[in-house]
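Tokens as discussed.
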């Protein structure tokens, strides 16, 4: 490879320049509960960046960081910042922000004269005028991962002129790098197509199978670390992990008998049609097993995850004291059920990962059960992390009830889990030094040099 081409690549991979503002580290926050050292450094870095992403593991305080960031942006710009959050999370965001001294108003339509920090649900985002806001925060921004989705396209286009943008999620999608391109495009760092052309090559005709170019690997991670922080533990950024060691997670697998297949052997359902049929045939057995498990610990709060309305209907009939949330429910009913589960008036909550599997803090609960699995590892990961997250004081028990005939789903989920762990490890391995320099440098306070006397040079210098 000739020198001229290497110089051309070097010029093309310029790091995105910060577009935000600096504040003194001691001034980060609003007088409520103090942020942890690593949180304060990340907020200061993100403010200096202006447009940034925080990929922080569940329970590391994304809500505290994003609301503090939003408060400082609103104060600096003399305007308003809008936080978009998943269903049922907006109220928790408002309550959590209050602990840290940030006033956040929950709204479902455009305020008459927006000032300060607001939070709304993604479902309500069309009701707001982007030009009226100085900043926007996407909570659980993995909603952008569907590249062709209408929601993704609308959010990127509507908010592309907003000067301050923050993207927050627990972890990028485990099975492809394209979600990083979505985040980059939302933040105005680099377009998806440009990122893929610069750093990636794709295998064969499947355009979703992208891999990093060998000679561009280091440049890619360096570019990513300039605008994103990926943190599994505070030690990833050089801080102390005290208070961030999770209690044990116990995964219990229960297999019910299945008649799917021939008379002698149970077959493993492979196609989507076969899996649906196998699930239908084992519905009653799986639900009965979940009800049995819940009945064994009547003093515990239980979070029951399902994937179909048929499962939800039968679970509700089989488990006393249970309350179900489904997609067709009114927003207020969903919020009432979630709040009831949080305050203890609802002991058993039945719902789907697609409805309540992202963003909610449910550490008061240490028992959950899945009445089966689907192929979405991300949904299962997020569902488990509603309870098993930093801040959980007890060991968590998660029961997975499946059928022998659904083994292919379990294998697929386990494969994606390994992919996620490998991707996270690779990201941190490549980015840790660069991230530490970026974030730690944001916390360095430099005294201004203000000379008060003219310098007199000795005669021999002249």
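Sequence:
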């Amino acid at each position: 490879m000739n020198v001229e081409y290497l110089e051309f690549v070097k010029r093309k991979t310029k790091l995105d320049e910060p577009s935000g503002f600096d504040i003194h580290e001691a001034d980060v926050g609003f007088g409520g509960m103090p942020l942890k050292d690593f949180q304060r450094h990340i907020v200061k870095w993100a403010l200096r960046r202006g447009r940034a992403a925080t990929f922080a593991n569940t329970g590391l305080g994304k809500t505290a960081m994003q609301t503090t960031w939003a408060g400082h942006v609103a104060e600096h710009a003399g305007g308003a910042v809008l936080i978009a959050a998943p269903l049922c999370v907006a109220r928790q965001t408002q309550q959590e922000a209050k602990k840290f001294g940030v006033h956040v108003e929950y709204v479902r339509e455009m305020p008459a004269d927006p000032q300060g920090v607001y939070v709304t649900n993604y479902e309500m985002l069309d009701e707001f005028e982007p030009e009226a806001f100085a900043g926007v925060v996407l909570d659980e921004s993995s909603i952008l991962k569907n590249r062709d989705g209408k929601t993704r396209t609308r959010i990127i286009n509507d908010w592309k002129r907003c000067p301050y943008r923050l993207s927050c999620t627990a972890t990028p999608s485990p099975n492809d790098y394209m979600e990083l391109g979505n985040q980059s495009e939302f933040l105005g760092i680099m377009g998806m197509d440009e990122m893929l052309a610069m750093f990636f090559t794709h295998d064969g005709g499947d355009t979703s199978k992208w891999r990093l170019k060998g000679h561009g690997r280091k440049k890619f991670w360096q570019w990513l670390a300039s605008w994103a922080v990926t943190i599994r533990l505070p030690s990833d950024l050089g801080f102390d992990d005290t208070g961030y060691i999770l209690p044990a997670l116990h995964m219990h697998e229960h297999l019910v008998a299945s008649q799917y297949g021939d008379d002698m052997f149970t077959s493993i359902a492979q196609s989507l049609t076969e899996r649906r049929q196998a699930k239908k045939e084992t519905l009653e057995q799986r639900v009965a097993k979940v009800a049995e498990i819940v009945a064994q610990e009547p003093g515990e709060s239980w979070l029951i995850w399902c994937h179909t309305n048929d499962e939800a209907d039968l679970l509700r009939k089989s488990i006393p004291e249970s309350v179900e949330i489904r997609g067709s429910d009114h927003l207020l009913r969903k919020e009432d059920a979630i709040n009831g589960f949080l305050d203890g008036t609802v002991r058993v909550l039945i719902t789907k990962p697609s409805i309540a599997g992202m963003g909610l803090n449910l550490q008061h609960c240490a028992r959950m059960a899945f009445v089966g699995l689907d192929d979405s590892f991300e949904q299962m990961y997020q569902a488990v992390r509603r309870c098993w997250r930093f801040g959980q004081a007890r060991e968590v028990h998660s029961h997975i009830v499946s059928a022998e005939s659904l083994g292919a789903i379990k294998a697929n989920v386990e494969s994606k889990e390994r992919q996620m762990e490998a991707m996270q490890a690779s990201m941190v391995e490549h980015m840790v030094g660069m991230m530490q320099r970026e974030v730690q440098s944001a916390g360095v306070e430099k005294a201004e040099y203000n000379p008060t006397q003219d310098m007199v040079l000795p005669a021999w210098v002249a």
